[in-house]
């Protein structure tokens, strides 16, 4: 099926290797840049959920039993097909999510990279022979795929967050039922079209659409689903953990409230550039977006001046019509309302507005969810912008006097996803990397994630990893086989 047009994918679910019209009621999907309805999805019914889980169960043993090289071949093919159709898939993503087409294309290409990475990993699944405490025994530790995975994903990275789960799971030998976010279902369905074209056996990948509280929850509760791989908010992640009626493997990639520290020894230009990129990219709708910045007092004013200039220079537009804009529309009214709430809270509590603070003006922005990149200075820790995840183009800045104080402020949060720091002092580098209590720490850079290193949070930011070899280990059970052979 071509995926140039969401009309092809509207109302469809993907079960047992084929698209079929969903039987459930239709739910509208909007273009967040214009407010126009771009299509409808079907709210998957209980029967369809059963059919998808049953298909994934039937497909599990044959898929897991294939030689790893065969699984690798189809994953490579999937990566090739996705990479070759990146332009069309990017337009679908922009249409439903709002990010500019060039950025969306970058995300699709990273999805293709994930397919190739996990195809390579699939053929390197090793076990271990471990020493025994008595002669005549041999212990093998082998890895076996967990089974059927329920993957539940958010709307901010509609391709990658589906892809990391799909690729890790399939490489390990698991099968999967995917429930993408209601706001961005068409990217997931476009991926399903590539799954079919790549010749991945029927039932190995299934995509259901519909509400999280119904379809996602049904996967969480289903005894035929062996593992839930979830990315989304901490509140829903906790709810999933608490509402899961069986003992089930869970990986939860959750929210963040990510700090950045700029010391007096920083390359200030680089810090400004990094801050502008990681605070506002994808309109701040990134789990690892910078929420709050602590700047050493001697460089505080200079940093703020540069940062305000950099924020003001970012271009905003309808991501389809201006593919090279820095920023597009926010994905829906909800994160925009939260951004406004956090901004008002900061201003009410005495913060100083140094950039943005309102929606851009003009006909182009009249019907969409737009907001200017916004910086508030002189912030205190009790402001919402400093203590909660804004998930919008708003960042709070505050001065500090000692590095210990900055590290304590950075760690003063229930979250633990990513932290950033800029300094050229080797001692500071060492202290920051040792004491920042985060799963990802980027120093003198704001690109915390690479495909072959583990990516995960701690504390309320979640459990488990994606990316890297660790991302595939999430889809295995270990089995210890202890054999007495009697030979000494
Ligand atoms: P969300 O938690 O509202 O929804 C995520 C997914 O969960 C959606 O598909 C939704 O339909 C589903 N869902 C909702 N209720 C459910 C339930 N009761 N049972 C099962 N599924 C349910 O999150 P969102 O608003 O879509 O995404 C934004 C959040 O995701 C932010 O908090 C962000 O930090 C987080 N996020 C985390 C990472 C990470 O890697 N740690 C990456 C991206 C986004």
Written overview of the protein:
This protein is of the alpha/beta class and 488 residues long. It folds into 2 domains: 6-254 and 461-479, Aldehyde Dehydrogenase, Chain A, domain 1, CATH 3.40.605.10; 258-450, Aldehyde Dehydrogenase, Chain A, domain 2 (3-Layer(aba) Sandwich), CATH 3.40.309.10. Helix content is 40%, strand content 22%. It is built from 16 helices and 22 strands. It has helices at residues 6-9, 46-65, 68-84, 86-97, 101-122, 160-172, 185-197, 212-221, 234-243, 268-280, 300-313, 333-348, 384-387, 403-411, 426-435, 468-473, and strands at residues 12-15, 18-21, 26-30, 37-42, 128-130, 137-145, 148-152, 175-179, 205-207, 227-231, 249-253, 258-262, 290-296, 352-355, 374-377, 394-400, 415-416, 418-422, 440-443, 458-459, 462-463, 476-484. The strands form 6 sheets. It has a 7-stranded mixed β-sheet, sandwiched between helices. Residues 152-157, 161, 179, 181-182, 212-213, 216-217, 220, 231-233, 236, 239-240, 253-256, 287, 389, 391, 417, 457, 462 line the site of nicotinamide-adenine-dinucleotide (NAD).
